[in-house]
Write a structure and sequence with these properties.
253 residues, 9 helices, alpha/beta, 20% strand, 2 domains
Length: 253
């Protein structure tokens, strides 16, 4: 009997081993998504991302924040990502034209330019026209960046041509120049000034209404986890995400 049991036992063990190996090679669904988002969304999306991870056990969100035009360039060159959120429709349209989107984008917020100055506004800037004063160091976004495009629209609407000391690749770079004293004033979004707290003061100007930026978000075609990516988009566009955005100075789209 012993000679009969041993082969039978060996067969059972062999079958179990093969079965176990087979199950270990089954690919698991990725639990992480990569979100490419406009620099101005950093504070809001970080908050939304933290809540998203709480609501989706085991899920992780990795963010890459930069100027929208830089993000589109990276995506076009093959950078891996699951979701793209732009600070304007122009750069989202570029992504769509490049075949990068899995579906139609959804508008989820809007933002308006304001003038960021040192705390207390020591240069006494009161209008957009004041930014053209001789001797005043002004920083703006580069034209291809949404905040730079908005600045150009305001220049056209007012007939005031600025002479910036530098053109930055993201709105956060503009804000940093003002916060560190490298510039007297900078054109940023209202949400950026709110996020900076007491580090800067804001000088609103009515002409900014001519250049309101709408923010769209979309799942990317090359997403490794489209279902989780869509859930993140839903989190941004849903009531909880909209509440976070509103608290950080964004308006409805």
């Amino acid at each position: 009997m012993k000679s009969l049991c041993r082969p039978a036992l060996a067969a059972v063990l062999s079958l179990a081993l093969v079965s176990g190996c087979g199950s270990s090679t089954t690919p698991s669904t990725p639990s992480k998504i990569i979100v490419f988002a406009a620099a101005s969304l950093k504070k809001s999306f970080t908050e939304i991302g933290d809540q998203f991870k709480t609501d989706n056990a085991g899920a992780d969100v990795e963010f890459s924040f930069a100027g929208s035009s830089d993000l589109v360039t990276q995506l076009s060159q093959g950078a891996p990502a699951d979701v793209f959120a732009s600070a304007d429709t122009t750069n989202m349209n570029k992504a769509a034209e490049g075949g990068l989107l899995a579906g139609n984008p959804v508008n989820f917020a809007s933002n308006t330019l304001t003038i960021a100055v040192a705390p207390g506004n020591p240069k006494k800037i009161t209008s957009f026209r004041d930014l053209a004063q001789p001797g005043l160091s002004v920083v703006v976004c580069a034209p291809q960046v949404p905040c730079g495009s908005a600045t150009q629209k305001v220049e056209q609407a007012t007939g005031v041509k600025l002479a910036p000391v530098s053109e930055e690749s993201s709105v956060t770079d503009v804000l940093n120049k003002v916060m560190t004293g490298q510039a007297d004033a900078g054109l940023v979004y209202g949400s950026d000034v709110l996020a900076a707290g007491s580090k800067v003061s804001s000088v609103p100007f009515p002409e900014s209404a001519a250049a309101v930026n709408t923010y769209p978000i979309a799942v990317l075609k090359e997403s490794k986890n489209a279902d989780l990516a869509r859930e993140f988009v839903d989190a941004v566009t849903g009531a909880a995400g909209q509440k976070v955005l509103a608290a950080n100075g964004f308006a409805k789209p």
